[in-house]
Every structure is written in structure tokens, then in C-alpha cells.
Amino acid sequence: MIGGLGFKASAAPFHMWTPDVYEGAPTPVTAFMSAATKTAALVLTMRVLVTAFPQEARLWTVTIAVIACASLAVGNLAALVQTNVKRMLAYSSISHAGFMLIAIAANNALGGRALLYYLIPYSAMSVGSFAVVAARERELNRPVTVEGLSGFGWERPLLGISLAVFMLGFAGFPLTGGFVGKFYVFAAAYEHGWTWLVIVGVAATAVSLYYYLGVIRALFMRPVEELQLAPVVGGSPPSERVLQTAVAAALIVTVGSFFAVQPLIDVAKHAAGAIF
Question: What is the rounded distance in angstroms from the CA atom of residue 261 to the CA atom of residue 55?
């Protein structure tokens, strides 16, 4: 069961499908998989293990912790060498599965609240990132690479700034919900007595800075090259306005979840109370 749930959550070593599927699928479908599918899989994992197998907690907590460490290692190290943005986000998704599995491995009420809170900004950042990638794909008429984002922050300020905020949120910087989510996850692991797991998570976060900040560098610190943008006919189509609205909404959730921590934690506490 853990193997099947890990496969759905894109956790290592059950992650082998994730990079190819994220890269090959239409970007809107990829956005749905990165948010909705992962959310359902992780919540189901916590519900099944805590509710159905409490007597085996001494076994599955260690197993989930090992899978979390594997996901953090595979996701972050593989993302370092990716040039395709969708493929990089796929490995980032594997890494974040590891962070959220730490909350499940903690097997306590704080871990339940941490997981349910973490999923809110994470889902917003995932959907927003892939929406920006979709906009850039439309302009370039080809897959988006990190180099293909050169100067995008100056060309499309709303989308560029939003993508930069999403990258900072993935990395766990303050003023984004990603910071609070990681803080609660680490607090749950520490409460469980697993300081070593906190150290692994912090080290993985440090490694992730390289590729997240690399995207921001491309957005604002690299000149626009001859990218041969595809011509846009007829001004701004309705789909473009919907896309920009989705990015703006994801940005609001990403930043707002940092400032509205207590209401969201109260909701997560109420939801987790049905399990723990």
C-alpha cells in the first residue's frame, strides 16, 4: 500500500514516471497533476496509515521517513541539472513530496496540521508556475527552458514577478506560505524526536536554492536573446486573460497564506482532529 501511495504522490523510489509525464503532458494537465493528484495522494496516505495501521506505527513511520529522505535527495539532486522548466518542476514536486512525507512520518497532530497547511500554498505555487510556463510556451511555440525565460520578468512583469515569488515559496523563503509550511513540518519532526530528519530537510532546502534562484536569475538578470517569439494575433485572447487571472490568484494565495497563518492553521487543526 505504501508503494502504491508513494507512486501516486511522486515519492522516490516510485517517482520514475513523473519527469517524463510532466514534460510530455499538456501544461494544464501537468498543473492539475502537480496539485490535485499529489494533494489527494498525500492526504490519503496520512488517513490510511494513521487510521488503519496505528498498531504498526513503529514500522511505517520509519519507512515513510526513509522514503521522504530518498525523495528529498533524488528530487533536489536531479533538479540541479535540468534545463527544461517542466522537468525541473517535476523533480521539485518529488522533493516537496519528501517534505510533506516528513509531516506524515511524525505521526502526531502537529504533523497532520503541517501537511494540510503545506498543501495550500504548495498547490497554489504549482498551478501558478505551470500557468506561467504555459504563457511562455505560447510565446515561444516550443518547450520552455531556463534559458528561454531570459528577460521574461521585464517583458511580462506580472507573470515574471509571480514566477519569482513561486520559486521563492518553493525554496521556503519568508513572506510566502512555503516558509510557514516547512517550519511546521520541521516542528512536527522535532516534536517526534527526529532531529536528524530536520537536518536532512534543511540540507535539501539549501541544495534547492541553486535551481530555484537560477530561474529568478534568468527572469531578471539575463538579457533577452533571439528567442523568435511566436506572433500573437488579435490582441489578448480570453484564454490569456484567464491565465493571468489564475496566476494572480495563485500569487495571492502564496503570499496571503503567510499572513493568514492562524485561520488556515485553525482549519487544518479542525480537519486533522478527525484523524488524530
Answer: 33
Phi, psi of 268 (to 5 degrees): -65, -40
The span from the CA of 257 to the CA of 43, in Å, is: 19
Rounded Cα–Cα distance for residues 62 and 106 (Å): 9
| Triad 208, 212, 216: Cα angle to 5° | 160
Give per-residue pLDDT as tens, 112-134: 999 999 999 999 999 999 999 99
3-state secondary structure 198-214: HHHHHHHHHHHHHHHHH
| Cα 103 from Cα 192, distance rounded (Å) | 10
Burial class of 249 by CB neighbour count within 10 A (0 to 12, 13 to 18, 19+): middle
- In three-state secondary structure terms, 228 is coil
Distance of CA 161 to the CA centre of its chain: 17
Handedness of CA 129, 130, 134, 136 (dihedral sign): positive
Q: Which three cell numbers stand for residue 230?
A: 511566436
DSSP 3-state of 216: helix
* pLDDT tens per residue across span 69-116: 999 999 999 999 999 999 999 999 999 999 999 999 999 999 999 999
Q: Is the dihedral of CA 246, 128, 186, 172 positive or negative?
A: negative
What type of residue is 51?
Answer: T
* Of 246, 230, 248, nearest in space to 28 by CA: 246
Residue 21 C-alpha cell reads as 509525464
